[in-house]
């Protein structure tokens, strides 16, 4: 479940957030049960680790989406009317410029030149 949450984080961050939280709780609840039964706990610990990573990534992506919601909505509207590759590139340039005005430079360096 934690691997599915990690994959979902990259497609739908909010759904990945919910799934990662559920996987984390399931892993934490399974750990004492496995210890009490004398069974190996490696899978539970691995699930907790992966779901924690997915939780952090999806929370960050969700916060970023909410923070840049207006800019991303403008980008989507621009892309609806963009009939050529050049006009699509202009839409991305407008989005990047709007994000640069709103985000600190170190965040933009971290994100690199990724397109939305």
In brief:
Helices cover 85% and strands 0% of the residues. The chain has six helices and no strands.
Tags for this model:
116 residues; 85% helix; mainly alpha
What does this structure look like?
The chain is mostly helical and 116 residues long. Helix 1 (2-11) runs parallel beside helix 3, helix 2 (13-37) runs antiparallel to helix 3 and helix 4 packs antiparallel against helix 5 (85-102). The relative contact order is 0.12. The mean pLDDT is 89. It has helices at residues 2-11, 13-37, 42-67, 69-81, 85-102, 105-111. Helices cover 85% and strands 0% of the residues.
Main sheet overview: none
Q: What's the gyration radius in Å?
A: 19 Å
First-to-last CA distance: 27 Å
- What oligomerization state is this entry in? single chain
Fraction of residues in β-strands: under 5%
Averaged pLDDT? 89
**Helical stretch tally:** 6
Percent helix range: over 70%
Bulk shape? elongated
Low-confidence stretches: none
Order of helices and strands: HHHHHH
Structural class: mainly alpha
Write the layout of secondary structure elements.
Blueprint: H1 2-11, H2 13-37, H3 42-67, H4 69-81, H5 85-102, H6 105-111
